[in-house]
Amino acid sequence: MNPYEVLGINQNATEEEIKSAYRTMVKKYHPDKHQNNPLSDLAEEKLMEVNEAYEMLTNGGSKNGNTAYGNRSNSGGGAGYNEGYVENPKPGTAEWFYQAGVASLNKGWYDDGLGKLQTAVSMAPNNQRYKQGLNQVQNMGGGYRADAFGRGAGRGNDDLCRMMQCLVCTDCLCDCI
Amino acid sequence: MLGYITPDKPELKVREYEMYSAYYCGICKAIKRRHGEIPRLVLSYDSVLLAMILSAVYDLEKGVAENYPAGPTVKLERCIIHPVKKRAIVYNDAAIDYAADMLVALAYYKFKDDWTDEKKVLGALGIAAFNNLHRKITGMYPETCGIINKSIAKLSELEKENCQSMDEAAEPFAQLMKAVFSGAPLKTGLRIATVKTEDAESTVEDIKAEEQLNEDDAKTDEHLNEAELKSLLGEIGYNVGKWVYLIDAVDDLEKDLEKNRYNSLKGIKDDENYKSRVEFSLICTLENASLALKKLKLEKNKGIIENIIYSGLFRKTESIVGLVNSEDEKNIDDEKSKPEPGSEPKPGSESKPGSKPE
Question: What is the pTM of this model?
Fold first, then answer.
């Protein structure tokens, strides 16, 4: 789970921002708000996720590399979660490069961060955590590119397409159409 | 470094383009009104982004600036550069006035830098002309001007040391833009969200209790407080500033090599992954700027702002980085970006809104 995604914040978020986002999310999914709502179970689940995400982000501390890009959990079993993680890594080790890279990325030094992550991966090519971190970083910008390409003539006006989707679905579900 | 932040004109609606021009003219007129005729020469398209984002933030917060009770209006007026046809100009907008002040402040520091480093005569003239203004503006925005001053000094220092780390070299300018964006006065009738920042971890019960106390603040869930606004604006400023610095470095690399001037990319220009590294950094800055922009949830002039961030800057990135390895493409694009005969306002500006590469 990506804690940043769950809370809906930027990976560069400060502690203040994390707290504020957490409060917003809790208010949104608080069970009292959803008492008469059939989706109350969903809200409960979501609330648990939110609490977990908040814990992940505040326990590690926002200066520590563990809370940021490196914090990938379990895409393929629990083994990779904290692979090689050391609290204060010795300078020059793969872990040091990884954590330093993550810290660089967090403060906006993208090229520097990328370089350090690549170094970490090349020093420890079997470490899944480093690989995942690097992949995640290399794919950064995907969302922006999608938005950028999605603008412009015609792309935003798919109302007709959506309407047809609605008609087809309704047709399948409802006998009277 | 001026003139890179432009919209993707073909993708702007006509009314958006006219609004964009109205802001540009509005800044020009604001400079004249607040600081005199000569500073109008430092006008550039980049400031329009700042003015638009701030204007949208002020509008979002439904506050009315203390000294601007009537709110922004659009008037039709003539000006020196366009004496024949009247143009639409935005007046009475706190954001435009701030952008005008910042432009003049930055111009002063640029002149100072030109004179100190390269002994350019224009620099000395500029310092003389802008000296009083500079003192006045520093008085109005002491913190922001302090950061600008420090950043420019740091930039000079890094140039002298021939810093070849693209991030380190871009940092002072990024910090400068962050200060400019987040330094805008926000005490303009903003409603401050009632969520208190506590030191202890708040429990769900605490939040619930708070909520019950503030029944009329049903919408404060999504309401950003002043600190959050400053932080998001700062994030946009930092990333846009970094983008400008990098894109300028890429664009000027060839010329800097010829004339033996400083460029932070000289060290890596022959690397096989030079282009992908540069592109990665640039896209990252745009991604983070756009993420921060999304969080602001602006409404006013949203189309134009998004056009600049998503289309304008993106096309600019593509066209400049794409040219890095190809001489032929460069010639074609030079042809296309030659000034068109048109009615665009241009005192002091250096480039036209980016043309699409082919």
Answer: 0.70
